[in-house]
Structure formats: structure tokens, C-alpha cells
Amino acid sequence: MSDAIVEVHHLVKHFAIAKGISEFIWGPAERYVHALDDISFRIRNREVFSLVGETGSGKTTAARLILKLMKPTSGKIFFDGKDIWNMSGHEEKIFRKDLQMIFQDPYASLNPRKRIYDIVSTSMRAQRWGTESERREIVSQVLEKVGLSPPEEVMDRYPHEFSGGQRQRIGIARALALKPKFVVADEPVSSLDVSIQAQILNLMINVKREFGITCLLISHDLAVVRHMSDTVGMLYAGMMCELAACRDLFEAPLHPYTRALIASVPVPDPDFEREEVKIGGEVPSPINIPQGCRFWPRCPSAKERCRLEIPKMIEAKKEHFVACHLG
Amino acid sequence: MKAVDGISFEIDRGSCVGLVGESGSGKSVTGLSIMRLVPPPGRIVSGKILLGKQDLTELSASQMQKVRGKKIAISFQDPMTYLNPVHRVGDQIAEAVVLHADVGKSEATEKAIRAMEKVRISDAAARAKDYPHQMSGGMRQRCLLAIALSCNPDLLIADEPTTSVDVVTQAAILRLLRDVKNETGLSVMLITHNLGIVAEFAQKIVIMYAGNIMEIGDVRSFFHRPYHPYTRALLESVPRLDRNSHTLTTIRGVICDPINKPHGCTFHPRCDFSEEICRREKPHMIEVTQGHLVACHQYG
To answer: Could you give the percent of chain A with pLDDT greater than 70?
Structure first.
């Protein structure tokens, strides 16, 4: 319990489909997008925890809730033991300093009209931290840390003067400026060229080790997840279907969806043999969700019970949780 | 600015060639060039594109119109950009049919539904009446393939056909392409940055970097023993599902500026093995083993 920096308890997030004027006349919307339905997990101090899922799985919603960018429909989120929706002003200020984010699109996440110095020092200004020269010193150090040098020259330039990989480094520098405890990295390398991805992934691993940061990695790329993670939580259509240590999940996946996903990832080896797992269909609409297990319409092993009853997360093996009636 | 600078390769009938490269490699421009769809002011400056015995660079615009879509078809990466949002998908596929086959509208609509069934869209007759925004990403991608395959082309150029869809849909779409290829003898040029897809699906692989071909090989030979320093580094820099965490090799530097390309070998500034000759002279393609060619002075 005490080594968890973030705890999520029974988190639910529904978005009402507002109909505008008709809602005004006839009353509140009755249809909701079920982005997340009752997910719970803990992130241990200094680990890399990955939330994996396809589009519509709810992983970005979960990240936004943890970052307190929106309010849950129900459920609680604890950071360093404190309920994030029940903090004093002072605690909130520390929370905002200790949690930072790295975004997916290095072209959209840097303000094109600001210099690199202004971008990287954003959180310092928001926190009213330090004098001008102290800020310049930190920005210089952190730019050096992410491999952008000479920092004095980099600081005064604009984002358009840098490549995608370099911009992502700037995004990382911005997140690290005030030495946060926890960083959410939302698809940090998916917009980058293959040869640049490796540079950024290696950088993230080094930085995490040096700064002692805990990381929540959001990704759909299983190879990246396998490379980076300590613990992995698999999301499907707003529910968590499996949660385990990285090695356990990839070597012995229990949930049929996890198995299908792992079997579908192409491997750069033409002689690599594995069982083909074909699943048809599409991810269910988050508005009209199936009644029982969300995966049953596509599951090769589905039984009658799966159609009727939502499976609960159970500890199938030590520290390996799965939500499946067959487990 | 030379997007593609002196490349040569062959696609055998009924087989798939994977054209692999990162941004600025020229892979997409190669695909567009074969279709003679390079947007102006770009143009093909020299070279031949032989479809069978016919050189496509010698055809007039109206002759090329007959080839495009009928003999060679192309499907693009982002279906939402390439499907018209205000027309039903069935009509868009039928439009391709009408252009190339001498049929009326109702027969074209029938053929469009058949094409949608061919790409495994279930309930095709109903789905044909949908608009693109009503479909999922995977379905839209299948519609783009339906347009491309509707006139039974000899060659399909598939530019990043699975980048915008999820892994499970990606596997289904690749299986679909493989089955169509095996059933009809379709040749495929698969343009991608994903080495995994090429390993599973292609018979030949062409690696491009900054407008040049670095290496060509039969897929098995290639993955078993890549020769070019760029290719080797690329293979080692990719995180893999079939291996536990290993340190990723990085390629130092950034992809070169397409306007100010380096003299000699375009890869030399980032290459750990570069020598004086690499700075001066562009390497020729040399056959190292049967069917496996590389453009590198190390093997000259």
C-alpha cells in the first residue's frame, strides 16, 4: 500500500451525449459514452506502468483523470496518499508540480509562437518558481540532459526550427524542468520515425533512472510497451481485462483479447512461428455496450455466461489479474 | 530537390515487394511516380517505368488514365482524407467501376457491393449506403482497398495500408491482401515503415533512404543477414515483441535535409563505418549474394 504513488479505485467516466436545444426542452440526455467503467489499479513508486489498449479503450481518458484534467463520474484517485479531489490549495500546487505530461504529437504540443526557453520554463512560471537567472540555469541544464546543445543557442529558437525527434526532446525537457515525481507519457514515440524512436526511448529510460521518476505510459504499440514497462494494464472498451507484470503478461497472457493482440503484432522475422489468432468484428460502440463481458461478441472462447455477466478482476496467478470467466 | 534519385527495382507477377523507408526516403513519391500522380511542380525527370513491356513514362495523359485504376491501383494511408465525406461509400466505389468498365450505374453498384464483400465488409449491401464518417477506421481502409481492387488490377500499390488502424484490424487487412494475392495473382507493392509487416507479408524488400535504394533482397535472405549499415542499425533499433528488453541501437544524427543532401553516399554522416570514399562517391548497387543487392562501398 505504501509504495504506491498513484492509486485508482473503481474509476468510472461517462460522457453525456448532450443534444443541445432538445436537451433543454425535453430534459437531460439519456445516452452516455462509457469511456471507463470501474477500473482499479496501483502504480508503484519509480516503476513504468503501461496502460495499453486500442482506440476507444479509455486509456487517454484514464490519463486525463489522473492528471486531474477532468472529474470522474465516480471513483477515487489518490496521489501520494491524498485524494486528488480533496486537497488543500497548497497540496494542489505541489500536485501540479509533481505531475507532468509528455504529449504524443511533437508538432502540436509546442506553441509555435514561443521560444524554446519560454516553452520549457512554462511550469516554473505557473508555479512562480525562481528568478529569471535561476530559471535560465535550469532550462539550460535540462536541455543538455535531453541531448539538445548548446542549450544557450537552442533556448532562443522556435519550434519550427527543429525536427520531430528534437521537438519531442523539448517536450520531455519541459516535463522535467521542475523535477516531477510522476510523468504521464501519452504515445511519446508513435509520431516519430523508427530510427528516432530508439533515441527517445533510450532517453526516457535514462532520465527515469536518473531522476527517479514514476511513469505512466499510454500506448497501443505492444513492442514499445514490452521494452519499457514494469507493469502492464490492458484496457478494452473502457474496462480493464488484464493486469500483470510485463514479462508475465507477454509470456503467459491469460485474457483472450490480450492473446489475440499479442498474436497480431507483426515481428521483423520471416521465420517467426506462432499460432494465428483471428478475431473478427470491431470494438463495440461505447454508447451501446454489450451487456456482459465487453469482449464476448468477438471472443473465440465465449460462453453463455460471458454474454450475461460482467467478469470481475480476479488474481488468477500471483500478481497476475484477469477479468474473464474462463480464468 | 530530388525526392527520388536513380532507383531501380522489379516487382514479379503475383508477389509482394515491401518498399521500406522513413520520412524523406522517397517511398511514397516512388508509389505516386509509378502511377504518374506526382503533384506539380514535381515531375519525373528521367527513367523508365515498365509495366510488362510498356513504358508508362511514354504514355499520353489519356492513355495513362486507362492504366491508372485498371492495371495499377493505389490505396492511400489516411482513408478519411481520401474518401469523399459527402458521398456514400458505395457510390465512391461504383464511380471507380464506371470509369474503367463499360457498365451502367446499377451494374456498377452491384460490382461495388461485390468489391466490398471481397474486402470482407460484412453486410456489404447495407454498408454501401453509409457515409465515411459512419464507419470505423478499419472499415474505411477496407473501402479504399475496395476502390483499388474493384477493377481487378495487375498491381496494387498500398501506401501504409494499416498505419491508421489498430493491430488486430491490421492483421485482418494483411491477411485479406495475402488471400486476394494468392487467389488472383495480384502483385503488390507495399509501402511502409514497419519492418514487421514486411517480414510477414512480402517476398522482396527494398530499403530506401533519402531518395536512394540502400539494399534490395529476398525477405528471408535480408532478415537473416542484412548488409547495409543503415539497414542493420534500423533492425537493431526497433523494440520487438519476440525479445525481452535489450538496449536499442540508435542511429546518430537526424535524417538528412532533402534539399541539401550530403555528397557521396547520402547516409555517410550517420554511418559508423564511413570512409573517405563514402564522402566523395555515391556507391553503386552490388550483388552480394543471389538476389541480394546493396549500395555500400564496404562491399565494392
So the answer is: 95
Closest CA to A63 of A115, A33, A120, A104: A104
Nearest to residue A187, comparing CAs of A8, A15, A11, A63? A63
Q: Which of A121, A145, A144 is nearest to A133 (CA)?
A: A121
Q: Which residues contact B132 (CB under 8 A, 6 or more apart)?
A: B79, B80, B83, B84, B85, B89, B140, B143
Which of B167, B166, B148 is closest to B157 using CA atoms? B148
Mean pLDDT lowest for which of B5-9, B104-108, B209-213, B263-267? B5-9
pLDDT at A22 over 80: no
Mean pLDDT of chain A: 90
CA-CA-CA-CA torsion for A156, A159, A160, A163, nearest 10 degrees? 110
Q: What is the ipTM, given to two decimal places?
A: 0.81
Question: How many residue pairs from chains A and B have C-beta atoms closer than 8 A?
Answer: 123
Average pLDDT in chain B: 88
Contact criterion met (CB below 8 Å) for B15 and B223: no
Closest CA relative to residue B204, chosen from B21, B11, B52: B11
For chain B, the structural domain boundaries read 1-71+155-300, 78-152
- At B226, list the grid cell: 542484412
- Residues of chain B with C-beta less than 8 angstroms from the C-beta of A220: 166-167
Supply A57's cell numbers: 479503450
Residues in Cβ contact with B230 at an 8 Å cutoff, skipping those fewer than 6 apart = B207, B209, B214, B215, B251, B267, B270, B271
Contacts of B172 in chain A (CB under 8 A): 278, 280
**Which residue from B138, B201, B245 is facing A227, i.e. has the nearest CB?**
B245
Between residues A70 and B81, the one the model is more confident about: A70
Contact across the interface for A271 and B197, Cβ inside 8 Å: no
Contacts of A180 by beta carbon, 8 Å cutoff, 6+ apart: A97, A98, A99, A100, A213
For the residues of A30-97, what is the DSSP string, one character each? --EEEEEEEEEEEEETT-EEEEE--TTSSHHHHHHHHTTSS--SEEEEEETTEETTS--HHHHHHHHH
Write out the H or E segment, with its range, that includes residue A16.
Answer: strand A4-16
CA distances (Å), B36 to each of A135, B55, B95, in order? 54, 12, 20
Between the alpha carbon of residue B148 and those of residues B99, B144, B234, the distances in Å are: 12, 6, 31
Peptide bond before residue A290 is cis, with ω within 30 degrees of 0: no
Residue A284 has pLDDT above 90, yes or no: no
Nearest to A158 by CA among A200, A120, A104: A120
Give CA–CA dist B60/B247, Å, rounded.
53
CA atoms within 13 A on the CB side of A307: 5
**pLDDT exceeds cutoff 60 at A327:** no
Contacts of A203 in chain B (CB under 8 A): none
Q: How many CA atoms lie within 13 A of B93 on its CB side?
A: 38
Give the chain B residue nearest A246 (alpha carbons): B244
Phi, psi of B159 (to 5 degrees): -90, 110
- Decide if A249 contacts A234 (C-beta within 8 A): yes
Interhelix angle A132-145/A164-176, nearest 10 degrees: 130
| Superfamily designation of domain B1-71+155-300 | P-loop containing nucleotide triphosphate hydrolases (3.40.50.300)
- At A281 the pLDDT is 77
Contact between A225 and A54 under an 8 Å Cβ cutoff? The reply is no
Q: Please tell me the distance in Å from A168's CA to the nearest CA on chain B.
A: 13
CA distance, residue A204 to nearest chain B CA (Å)? 12
- Burial bucket for residue B244 (CB in 10 Å: 0-12, 13-18, 19+): exposed
